[in-house]
Amino acid sequence: MTVGHLPEACFEGVIPSLVATVGPDGLPNIAYLSQVLRLDDRQVGLSNQFFGKTAVNLQANPRAALLVVDGMTGAQFELAAVFDARLDHGPLFDGLKAQLDADFAVFGLNEIMRLRAVDVFTVQGVRPIPGPVLPRAAPRPVPNLAAVAQVAERIASVTEVEQILDATLEGTCGVLGCGAAILFIADAQSESLAALASHGYAQSGVGAEVGPQPGLIRIAAATRCAVRLNDLSRSKRMVGAVRAACAPGDDAIPLPALPEAQSQIAIPLIWHNSLIGVLFAESRQRLAFSAEAVGAAKIIAFQVAAALSAADQPGEAEALAEPQLAAAEHAQPGAPVILTHHSHDDSVFLNGHYVTRGVAGRLLIVMAQELLRSGRTEFTNMELRRMQDLKLPDFKDNLETRLLLLRRRLDEREMPLRLRRVGRGRVRLEATTGIRLASADAGAFRGAETGR
Predict the structure, then answer these.
(1) Partner of 244 at 20 to 30 A CA spacing, among 27, 89, 217, 312?
(2) The GAF domain covers which part of the protein (predicted)?
(3) Which residues pair with 282 in a beta bridge?
(4) What is this structure's pTM?
């Protein structure tokens, strides 16, 4: 029997493993392990976090005995192993560090339980330990390569951001066999992660932001490593919306949550070494996301990152729009709505209700200002990119995704202001009543109105 014959659930970290060593004086020492990694059929990697006595013993005697437990059935296996090497950097170390940070962040122990190294052992023998075991549940579905290819092909065949998002989220849930998924978009300037689209939830959560505290989604973005939690029954939920430093009284947008979720996975969206966002999925099943599921999700993530980046590239269709009459001039009579802008984070409130912030907030204010100044209602991506007030980055501005986020937020809140897509690279700002712009700062926009 080799390491390759052991169930994958032995290496999920759901049930702690043990390592036993012997010191020069012949005294044994036993230590708990947060994680044992299966590297191949003959090697395993051990998480080295508090290996004081264990490390001393291995210097004198490289032999060790390991105990791993199947998280599905409770079956136990003893591994006779010999210490080979200690790794404190590289892809293997980085991936395990990200995973352990996610595991312990929920308890606030990610700093205390910091990974020091990955200790590599060669396994010379594997022996099952007799004892009672639970009946093995139905095996986890293995993602079908053909199904993954179909999802990637569907994403590659569409050019509109909304179509890309629909293909990604529906395809991810189908391939992974999970109940729900969210795609977060990253803002390099504010380091925020905002929900752009979701699938399988009662509420969409569009515009909800991941808090700054370490968590599964935030760690995936920071480390650019895929991370997963396969047994949430032993920990608190990792998700929760934490508002940014906005003015008092603003409303946080809650992140959607799958009731009774047991497993979660977060995959960074990387394109040309830039973070585009994070693909997040969750399931009601324990141990839902296998190593094969992680691989399938990464393939989808690479494809959607490329597709979103391509969709944000300026195209020939982005011709300058002709000035249009302001929709507000035809609005029904009544008191104007008040858009209040907070410059410290570019958050925008409509009649005191939070709408959005960051780039999306600046977009709304800049277009509203232009509507009041000149009566313009239509804008092209090209001219928006040229507006210095938007402070868009010179490279990878994600303008299309920001416009979609703003449009969905206005629609979801049923605001009297709406953003309509009227062509490739062209949007229209529509108002059903008058608009007044105000500033939470020194009155930069105060008193500007339309539709009265």
Answers:
(1) 312
(2) 160-318
(3) 180, 264
(4) 0.78
- CA dist 137 and 132 (Å) reads 15
The pair of three-digit structure tokens given for residue 329, joined into one six-digit string: 């001039």
Which class is 327-450 in CATH?
A: mainly alpha
Q: Which DSSP string do the residues of 305-364 spell out, in sequence order?
A: HHHHHHHTS--TT-PPPPP---GGGGPPSSPPEEEEEETTTTEEEETTEEEE-HHHHHHH
Q: Does domain 145-311 have CATH number 3.90.420.10?
A: no
Q: Give the type of residue at 203.
A: Q
Tell which phi-psi region holds residue 362, choosing left (phi > 0), alpha (psi between -120 and 50) or beta: alpha
Question: Using one digit for the tens of pLDDT, what is the confidence trace for 420-448?
Answer: 988 878 899 988 888 888 888 754 444 44
Tell me if 403 sits within 8 A of 419, measured CB to CB.
yes
- Tokens representing residue 342 in the block: 């907070």
DSSP 8-state class, residue 262: -
Q: Can you list the alpha helix ranges (DSSP code H) found in 37-158? A: 52-60, 91-105, 145-157
Structure tokens at 104: 């312990």
- Its CATH class, for the domain covering 3-129, is mainly beta
User: What would the pLDDT profile of 263-304 be if each residue is shown by its tens digit?
Assistant: 999 999 999 889 999 999 999 988 889 889 999 999 999 999
